[in-house]
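Dear Dr. L.,

I hope this message finds you well. Following up on our conversation about the binding site, I have prepared a predicted three-dimensional model of the protein together with 2-oxoglutaric acid. For your records, I am including the exact sequence and ligand specification that went into the calculation, followed by the structure tokens. Please feel free to forward this to your student if that is useful.
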Amino acid sequence: MPSTLRAPEDIKGLSQDLDCFGYCMAAGVLDAGRLDHAVKAVERAAGRGKQPSADAEEWRRAGDEWVVLIAGECGLDDVASHPLALAMARHLLGERIMLSGYTAHVIHPGNEEMELHTDQWWLPRAARPGESPNRPGAITRAIPHYGQPTASSHPINPAVVINVMWAISDFTRANGCTRLVPGSHLSGCEPDPERTFATVHAEIPAGSVIMWDARTWHGSGRNTTDASRIGVSITYCGPQFRQLQNHTLAIRPEVHASLDDTMRTLLGFRLFSSYGATDDDEATFARPGYERL
Ligand SMILES: O=C(O)CCC(=O)C(=O)O
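The resulting structure of the complex is given below.
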């Protein structure tokens, strides 16, 4: 049974869906003004501002476009630190979280369907003594660990990442909305790209959000319409993991100086038991080198 589209205030229902199905969805979170602002922010970050119909062939070749958003500069930090996203991230991961990936995923007409995958394929799996260990420095996407999307009878890793996907345009089956395999977060394995699995299509109006446990098998669909689908995909991880983007390096000094502690913590400036330190491993926040210079 798929999850339902809930009101953003229904934290209990959303949490239950996330635990049970591996994803949950809330409607009506961003209003029309915020959506308009978000579209412009994504276009600005992508360095464009033209419509897909201008050159359909060019967009078809571009297919899936991942637009990197820079914290403090992209104009979407209130989305990245949205209370609903942080509440659900903390429900899944615990109190201390960091922002990992900060991107827009724009799907242009004629793109290819994305393979189903998980968002924490890089995490070593537990092995019984004597079993070949899953060495962290040897992990690549190419190492298969395939299985069925059903609950494992063996211990599995916890979720260490959550993906919060904001629908900036309507998400429909025709324009390549996110597809998810309910319950697959409990399987402890990855989907075999050679096989077909039953998916739920997250058809949601613009302004809604899908939040999935990174263990849940998912991917975007194929856009058969003549307009691009815009999603803003923001992932959060536990404080001991490497972030998808290097926010602490990407940020400009004057932007760093303007951040509040919430945003500094999310970006990874806050130390985790000395990890992430710069000049003082007892400090609460790392200090960028330019301050010392
Ligand atoms: O854009 C989508 O619908 C899915 C994106 C995705 O698979 C991901 O962010 O890992």
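In brief: Residues 49-57 have pLDDT under 50 and may be disordered.

With kind regards,
A. P.
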